[in-house]
Every structure is written in structure tokens, then in C-alpha cells.
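Sample A.
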Amino acid sequence: MGTKAFVVYVKYKTDVLEVSTSAEETCAEFKDRLMAVTSIQPDKQRLLGLKRRKEEGSASLAAKVTDETPIGHLDLSANSAKKPLMLLGTPEAAHASLQRWVLNRPCAFTP
């Protein structure tokens, strides 16, 4: 029996993306989905607003969110189109063009 999919809202630049996921999917798999939409490599992605759900009877938050954390263990109760997670990162193509620009730029400093 499969699990029910749900939508997580993620803001990237000026767009709010609707990314379908399931509770069993890990954060690493979720980042792979985001890469398909944004061209940002998973290791270059920074998701703001991710936090673990409080455990029953615990006063503090559980362990830090990692790539192995299942989406179902995150507190996404406030996630909506009006309050999305925030994605920071630069697409791979932009990294390559910036690197070419820096390498090909004449140096103005002469010793």
C-alpha cells in the first residue's frame, strides 16, 4: 500500500514552487526533486524553515534535520503558499559561467 502524496511549498527567487512528496521520502530525495525544477545541485541547496516535529513528551526539538531525515518527521504544519520554505542556491550553469568570467578576466593589478 503506497503512501499519500502531499505538496510542499518552496519559494525560490520570486516563484513559489509546489513540490509533490510523501512522508517516507528523505530530505535528500526531496532535494533531488528540487534540482529537477531549479537546476541547483543538492549539495548547493540551502532550505530555510525546515525543522523537526517536537517529539511527544519532549520539551526541546529533536535532532537536527539531515539529508536522511524523512519528510514525515518534519514540522510542515505552517507550510503553505503564503508561508513557503525558502530555497537558497545557485544553479550549476550560473556557477560555470561565473567561473569562466573570473578565469578570463584580465587582471588589473600588476606587482
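Sample B, a different protein:
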Amino acid sequence: MLGAPIITAVTPTTGKTSGGTTVYVLGSGFPNVPSITCLFGGSPVDATYLSTGAVVCLSPALGAGAVPVEIDFPYDKPTANGIQFTYEGLY
């Protein structure tokens, strides 16, 4: 039995405003279920399950600045821990 999903880090922590950065969301307790979604500042993108401690997704295009990263698993509320991803406008 897995514990409650928790995000502990994202890598990399920065990316371009045009999106398309491969982002690994790390943590624990991630269930292997269909239709996992990463949320960057509330903007959803599809995620791929890697393990109980990792999912991967491509960042969407957003304006410059830091945004919270969450994972939305079906049948559960989005998982957030205050972890942020920073969009840099120099790309």
C-alpha cells in the first residue's frame, strides 16, 4: 500500500517560456494509474508514470516567473508541496 502522494522536487527547476522542457517530478507514493496530469500554475499537461517516486511531463508555454507544480491523479485531489518551476523569458 502506497502512502499519500508527495512531491519533493522537480528537475530541472527552470525552463523556457515557450514550453517543451522535459520535467521530472520526484517524490513518493505515486500510483500507477491512467490519465496522470502535471499542472504548471494550473495549466494541465499529460504525464508519464515512471515509478512510485517519479513522473515525467513536458512543461506548457507560460509567461516568465515561478509557478507551482502539482500532479493530478484520477480519483484524488492534486498533489502539491509548494514545489515550483521557474519560466525564464530569455529563450
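Observation for Sample B: The chain has a mean pLDDT of 91.
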